[in-house]
Amino acid sequence: MATPSKKTSTPSPQPSKRALLRDPSSEVPSKRKNSAPQLPLLQSSGPFVEGSIVRISMENFLTYDICEVSPGPHLNMIVGANGTGKSSIVCAICLGLAGKPAFMGRADKVGFFVKRGCSRGMVEIELFRASGNLVITREIDVAKNQSFWFINKKSTTQKIVEEKVAALNIQVGNLCQFLPQDKVGEFAKLSKIELLEATEKSIGPPEMHKYHCELKNFREKEKQLETSCKEKTEYLQKMVQRNERYKQDVERFYERKRHLDLIEMLEAKRPWVEYENVRQEYEEVKLVRDRVKEEVRKLKEGQIPITRRIEEMENERHNLEARIKEKATDIKEASQKCKQKQDVIERKDKHIEELQQALIVKQNEELDRQRRIGNTRKMIEDLQNELKTTENCENLQPQIDAITNDLRRIQDEKALCEGEIIDKRRERETLEKEKKSVDDHIVRFDNLMNQKEDKLRQRFRDTYDAVLWLRNNRDKFKQRVCEPIMLTINMKDNKNAKYIENHIPSNDLRAFVFESQEDMEVFLKEVRDNKKLRVNAVIAPKSSYADKAPSRSLNELKQYGFFSYLRELFDAPDPVMSYLCCQYHIHEVPVGTEKTRERIERVIQETRLKQIYTAEEKYVVKTSFYSNKVISSNTSLKVAQFLTVTVDLEQRRHLEEQLKEIHRKLQTVDSGLIALRETSKHLEHKDNELRQKKKELLERKTKKRQLEQKISSKLGSLKLMEQDTCNLEEEERKASTKIKEINVQKAKLVTELTNLIKICTSLHIQKVDLILQNTTVISEKNKLESDYMAASSQLRLTEQHFIELDENRQRLLQKCKELMKRARQVCNLGAEQTLPQEYQTVFQDLPNTLDEIDALLTEERSRASCFTGLNPTIVQEYTKREEEIEQLTEELKGKKVELDQYRENISQVKERWLNPLKELVEKINEKFSNFFSSMQCAGEVDLHTENEEDYDKYGIRIRVKFRSSTQLHELTPHHQSGGERSVSTMLYLMALQELNRCPFRVVDEINQGMDPINERRVFEMVVNTACKENTSQYFFITPKLLQNLPYSEKMTVLFVYNGPHMLEPNRWNLKAFQRRRRRITFTQPS
């Protein structure tokens, strides 16, 4: 049976679907067998039991427009071909009773269960109740994916519906009660623990599962309490042991504390003793200080007469020094006048020297003028001789003009050549720019190709390594080998890449395409066998399919929104395109738009295409094997990953050809540039030669004129030098006269200087006399000052002694205060408090000297130091542990009491749970074994656990044997075949049937995997078990039945038909059909 994600039916003139129900009133009369059940677990009123389904109504639900199903109270067999809508009824039961979509294993959203093209759907379930039937309605909104609930036509919430359903013991999520088609395989996958839980919920008393849960919780609490008691007991023992170890240390700690207390009192008394000693010392220093102070006063009175005499001598010394300064001033003025006279005499000597030097200079200038005149005359004579030898240069002008014309012609040729070079350079720059642009385009193409290769390397590293090997070894192959399809495909528009990637499997996208079988074997041997790379390879068809025309023209399909076939969406090498057309028919698969999706039913019906792509979905169309109807499935398109990068290979080849042409033009331009540069170099060389020749001719032409100009210039200079004459005798006479006058002035100045020197000598004698008198005064004054200094030294020593004594007194006073303060602080006394009596009492028994106190302190400290390794925290921890031990002992007693209570509770609950559970499992085992025995097989059900106390590990174990030669094996998803698992599942459910307290059971297509023999046996058991009185309602869904099966009059057979000639729902009248049938029967001849 096809199960696509969505169903689309073949359109027909009347597209509604309808389930034809068998009316119980039309059954053939027969005797009813009434058999009371062994376990009256269900309340019943008439044929229906409490919670049975009386009516199922569907509107716009899956395959149905409008449908109403009225099941019978016992076995309901729903029969119909695959795809007609049998499982839709199962889905309606589940969703209508507040089940989750995941229970059916079909879809995860409730909106997917509404018929395609409809915005809303409805399911209505009517449940039997003795107090009045319960009608539950669920309306489904597709757009919002929401449900609206009603009970007896009144709006309500899903939670209230779930409570109502649970109150009737309906469990659509329990595989023992509700087994949809897509969950049949999961029953065998249930673990023993899950099977026990499902069985408890399904057939056990309501309190059984509750007791089981309580037992698991109690056992978990018991384990926690046992662990806690064990940990606390171990911890308590460790703490007691630790305190015993530290008890001796605590006693030693207190002994050490007594020594420390004595040390504390000694240290408290010591500051008081220190204070008293310092106070006595202070009084002694104060008496000595007062005595020294009197001595200082007497020394100061003895220094007063000496001070007065020193002042008188100091005044006399000041007067003498003033007179010495006056004489020094007079001496200075006389000395300055002598200096002035000496300066004038020196200036006169200097003037004489200057006159003599000027005369010597004029003599030297005259000698130099005579020498220059001689040199100039010699140069003129040499220039005149050279001028005579110079030839006539008038015939050189024609040669100069000819060279000038040649130079002008060569300059024109050079300009033309330079212009051509500039043109060639511009042409080369243009070509270089074009080359760079083309290179950039090629690099961009290569980057895009690299992106594709990077994706290949990241996802399929082996394939990427094989590509690298192929590129280096193409010479090993005889025919063309194409790289992986994902690298060779080039999308024309990368938006369409998703269609190609969804159509071509990933294994083929990374496959290499070969044209030769031999080449492919060489490739696979090297890559797979030698290099151990996992790669795929395919062979292109011998005859090309690449250009094969589609069976239908695209113009015919454009009316449905199709715009292209897959083949036209990309470019690829001919072998790749041929392989894809042959293998995946890409030339036959059209691609449409959103318009196509909107008309999809019409497209499927009219085009008969096998595969269709819309904007976001892929449709696969098949024909049903049973009904010959068209069935389509659709899937959402995955996002493209590999082909989104587009590389235009044709444009890249065009760019490569363009690049080759540019290289050829560049070579031509470079050759032309080399030739032009050689020509320019030759012209430059020739130009230089002509310029040198012209320069030589011009120099020869201008040489005579230059010689004539030089001779004229030298004659002018000679004339000027001859005119510039000097009379040396006259100059010597004038200089002699001036020197005589200066010597007369100099003699007068020497006489004046001699007189000034005599005056200066007299002043110096007077000054020396005054200095001697001043020295005598200073000597007497120094003697007095020496006596004064001796007395002052004695005074300073005495004062220093006084200051030291005073400072010592201050220091002792401050020390007394500090010692008093420290002593009070040690005893914790305030500023005005006296020493307490208890201190005075203790201090009387202690030594009174510092030495004795220090000796006793040392002794006590030595004794205290003997107690090493003691830590004050040990005593604190010891005391704290004593408290914790007491507290922990009380807690442990409470935990043990609580543990005993939990064990008592476990014992009581276990008795109420385990004994009924064992009886229940034994009943299930009895019925299960009987069912298997009737099939000549063996099977048993037992309660399995590894540890009786682990209540969360209890489970139901099913063991079966289908052949006499084998042993019983546990039912697992792997050991038995699919048919054997189906038989075992069905028989287990039948074993639960008579014990079941649930109102109905649903089993969908469980007989599909059974062989005919087992199917017949199981069917007989189902009929016999489900058709007993007071058993729960049973729904058995199957697409096929064997011939000549036994049927019971209590069965209700529901046939589901589906076809283009079905009546519309509003014209369906079952009673009218039955009446017509009876009339036809009565009118037939006997």
Q: What does this entry look like structurally?
A:
The structure is a single chain. Helices cover 61% and strands 11% of the residues. It has a domain at 490-582 and 637-642. The chain contains 24 helices and 25 strands. The strands form 7 sheets. The protein has a 6-stranded mixed beta sheet. It has a 6-stranded antiparallel beta sheet with strand order 3-2-5-6-7-8. By secondary structure, the chain is an alpha+beta fold. The model is unreliable at 1-45 (pLDDT under 50). Helix 5 (206-302) packs antiparallel against helix 20 and helix 21 (872-934) packs across helix 22 (978-993). The two termini are 44 Å apart. The radius of gyration is 67 Å and the shape is flat.
- Poorly predicted regions are 1-45
Give me the number of helical elements. 24
The largest β sheet comes out as: 6 strands, mixed
Q: What gap, in angstroms, lies between the N and C termini?
A: 44 Å
Beta-sheet strand percentage?
5-15%
Quaternary status: single chain
Number of strands: 25
| Helix share bin | 55-70%
Radius of gyration: 67 Å
Q: So what's the overall shape?
A: flat
Strand order, biggest sheet? Answer: 1-25-4-24-23-9
Structural class: alpha+beta
- Global mean pLDDT: 78
Can you give keywords for this protein?
single chain, 1086 residues, alpha+beta, six-stranded mixed sheet, six-stranded antiparallel sheet, 61% helix, phosphoprotein, mitosis, telomere
